[in-house]
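Journal club side-thread
Mid-discussion, someone asked how the predicted structure for our own chain would compare to the paper's figures. Pasting it here so we can look after the session.
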Amino acid sequence: MRAVIQRVKSSSVSVGKEMVGEIGEGLLVLLGVATSDNIDDAEYLADKIVNLRIFEDENRKLNRSLLDIGGKMLVVSQFTLLGDCKKGRRPSFVRAASPDLAMELYQQFVERVRQKGVSVKTGRFQAAMEVSLVNNGPVTLIVESK
C-alpha cells in the first residue's frame, strides 16, 4: 500500500455537488492499494500514520501525532498512486489492485484507524471526486507498507 499524507487545517471531498467527507485539523490520506497487498499492509499503514509525529509541540518541533492532537483523518482511495511512469508517456497501472481487493483493503485501513480512536471520513470508492484542502505547513509525506 502507498499513502500520500498531507497535514491539513481542513479538507473535504465531493462527488458531483454532494460533499461526502469533511474534516478540520488532521490528515488527508490518499491511499493506493497494490496487487501484492494484504491485511497486514493495512494494519501497518494505519498504525504508522496515526502515530507519525508530524504535528508541532509547544516548542514548534514536529513531535506530536494525530492521536496526540485529537485530529481527524480524511481517506481518499487513489489507484493512480500505483502508476508506473518509467516507460513511455502513459502510466501503467498493472501494479494497482483489482477493485474488489482494493475496496476490501481500503475499508480495512479505515476500520483499523477508527479502532485506534481516530475520527475518519472518506471519499466514495471508484467515484470521480474533487478533493479540497488547506495544507498546514505544508507537510506532505509518502508512506509505503513494503
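Post-session note: The beta strands are 2-15, 18-23, 26-32, 55-56, 62-64, 72-77, 120-122, 130-144.
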